[in-house]
Amino acid sequence: MKNSKDSLVPILTPVCIILTAMLLASGLILAIGVNPLTAYGQMLKGALGSLNNLINSLNKAVPICFAAFAVAVSTWAGIFNIGVEGQLVFGAFGSAIAGAYLEGLPPTLHVTLSLLAGMLFGMLFALLPTVLYVARDLNLLVVFILMNSIAKLLITFFIVGPFAVPGQMYAATKEIQKSARLPYLVTNPNKLTAGILIVIVVGLLLWFYVGKTTSGYRLRACGENAEAARYAGIRVKRYQAGALLAGGALAGLAGGIEVLGTYHRLFDGFSPGYGFDGIPIAMLASGNPFGIMVGSFLFGALRVGSTTMQSKAGVSSEIVTFIQGVLVTLIAAQYIIQFTIKKLAEHKPEKGGAKQ
Amino acid sequence: MSQSMFITVFVSIIRLSVPIILTALGNMYCLQAGIMNLGADGMMISGAFGAAVTAYFTGNPWLGVCVGIICGMLIGAIHSLISVEFGGMQNISGLGLNMMAAGLTSFFCRSTFKTGLSPNVASVQNMPWLAGIPLLGPILTQFSPILLILIIVFAISCYIMGRSVAGLRIVAVGSDPQTVETAGINVWKLKHICVITCGALAGLAGAYLSVGQLNFFMENMTMGKGMLAVIAVTVGRRRPVRTVIVALFFGIFDALQLQIQIIGTSGIAPELIQAIPYLAAILAMTFDFGKKLDDVNMNPYLKNQYKF
């Protein structure tokens, strides 16, 4: 009996967190004099109402999902990775350059090379923090924040300076070659990029790696208890460095797919914070790749639906940022939520769902 | 560089450094007490919004500054509730509060003013009553009176951290809470005070942005200044004077790139100038071979009643 309650906690916690965030957002929507149910209805319609909108949401979910994978990989190793945003933008830059300036390649090869370039750039951008962490034991959070700022500035510099295309309305890199475009799975009623296939493949690989291999087990051991892992003969720093670099590659892939599949060029501010979206998803799914896919789809739908909500219900789409913020804040308070759920479950066995 | 240009740049450095220094001083208390406050940006932006809205509706900028401080303290209180009282994950809480405050302020800004930019509000951008001072008068008048508050805060911070019992206690709580509790000091109360003080100072910095340096509120107007403040404290080894020097260093490059953008000549890209302080911060941390800092214990110190 008690065991079944315990196994409920990992599912109940995210549900409670999401419900609380929605409830708080309803409060805000009420405060500006709009019926929250109308607003949420419009959001749902905009995100999932038709096949067209559903494809939009799926496309939006792809980069978010890779960002969440990148965060999750380092979370397994016990590192909180907030540098995904910078690595993602840099990866997008790598893919945009490879896609635009490599010429005369067959499409399959060109797409693969461009994606690899994105992964390489993302990984390169994760290299400095990794080296600093391994060799000098610096505070990774601070280094990642610095690297994110540097990435943003450098990309602006590249787009406005050396790689600018003259005579355009807004600053952007050269459009990628036709051969570098990611193929579409469906083109009617809307374009669904092949990125979604890559997500599923990578998700399965990650699931297999972390759940079924010795190396994945060791990686998680580093995250659970680094000290114990060290005594068990696991080279903790090596695994952590690997996780950071792999996270960089995944983040780069996210940016690359977004450039090759959706925009076909890199422009300033092209990421609306995908890297930061990945953090709450990876945390809510507690690192489970399938949970991450579901969560990313929800976040993609949230982003797509919010634009409909803004135009139809007159609720500013900034509410999404608020909901995400509340989610992350509540995730930080996870401990006390789990504590409360357990306490309530002990006292009143018939009441399962507990508010914070 | 002519003399007038020199003065312009100097004034601009000080004006741009004020919010970073204020937030950094607040963060210093936080970090010394063992709480990482990545939510500084959220505290600043809510302070900025509170100040601008109050100044807009009442016409009194000083009331705005007070409301700004209170808004910052509220965000600080949430952070301290999660990371001190409930033993939550402080880094994640800070990031979440950043997003939440950014969303909240943009949302209300857009619903109140219909755009992401508020109309002009009453502000306290300069100190005309100092014009009488010979020689320095014309320069001093260009600063907001909040600069005076900053100087007072700095002096108090130097005193507290340098030569008071309270400062010693803050350091002790940060490095070894268990021992401090044994000595009969209320660990949680002290940590709460530090985090909420940080919120107040960051809120003041935000109020400075919206009614001290400018006279309007704009979405995301902090532009990562809170993060700069966190870095200033880390690079400044959590000591007030060093922290302020690092924050000033950030201000110098901010002013420099602004001047380059204004002049618009010389083939230097402003983005590269802006990137210099970040690179310098990484270098400074990498080659920090000085005396090793006392470790700060960043793990949550949980109350017995919440253990299971």
Q: Could you explain how this protein is built, in words?
A:
The complex is a heterodimer of chains A (356) and B (308). With 356 residues, chain A is mostly helical. Chain A has two domains: 1-34 and 319-356, no CATH class; 61-314, ABC transporter involved in vitamin B12 uptake, BtuC (Orthogonal Bundle), CATH 1.10.3470. Chain A is built from 14 helices and two strands. Chain A has a two-stranded antiparallel sheet. In chain A, helix 2 packs across helix 12 (289-313) and helix 11 (274-284) crosses helix 13. The radius of gyration of chain A is 21 Å and the shape is globular. The longest helix of chain B is centred in the first third of the chain and has 30 residues, at 3-32. Chain B has a single domain, classed as ABC transporter involved in vitamin B12 uptake, BtuC, CATH 1.10.3470.10. The mean pLDDT of chain B is 84. Helix content of chain B is 70%, strand content 0%. Chain B is built from twelve helices and no strands. With 308 residues, chain B is mostly helical. At the A-B interface, helix 5, helix 6, helix 11, helix 13 and helix 14 of A face helix 3, helix 4, helix 10 and helix 12 of B.
